[in-house]
Amino acid sequence: MNASPPNQQALSAAIAQATRQAVETLFREHAEDFYCIALITTGEAHAPFLSAWSWQALSAETRRQGLDSDEALKWSYADSPYAVFGEGCFAEMNRYFAQRPAMEHTLRDAAWAAEFDLRLTAMEDAVRQQDAQGLFGTGAERDKRVVTVEVVPPDRGTTARALWLNPPAAPVHWLAEAAEP
Hints:
- The chain is 47% helix and 12% strand.
- It has 181 residues and is α+β, with helices and mostly antiparallel strands.
- The protein has one domain.
- Strands 2-1-3 form a three-stranded mixed beta sheet.
- It is globular and about 50 Å long.
- The protein starts with 7 loop residues before the first helix and ends with a helix.
């Protein structure tokens, strides 16, 4: 007998736990000024991974790549030295995603859209829960850090999610420099 796949609440709890472990490890191992923390997923809403940027890492990577400006790197999850950070923290969460219906070649139209929405909502809920618990900072510290749930390639929902997930001051620069129109 096959067990039912994890529901949205269980998926969200697994994402929240993985995110908490990875972000706590990031902050503990790298005493830097992080300005961006992102859960990144694909256009098929596969299991997300963490990427982050700090001002120190941005400066170092800009120098390493011999660039005159950091603008090309500032919001690029893939160029960050903290892309796919804490991969081991996400192992249990990845099992939960593997138990959900396969997005490729099996789901069509409304079923595909419903599964995509369930997965993105679970990611959003997990980030909101962890934010409410102070994982990304509080007060002025939190206002300096944008937290996103991003789909790659970018979709219009990324901007809406950034607005929903952050206090008003946090995403100001991200909105001006990286948001989808």
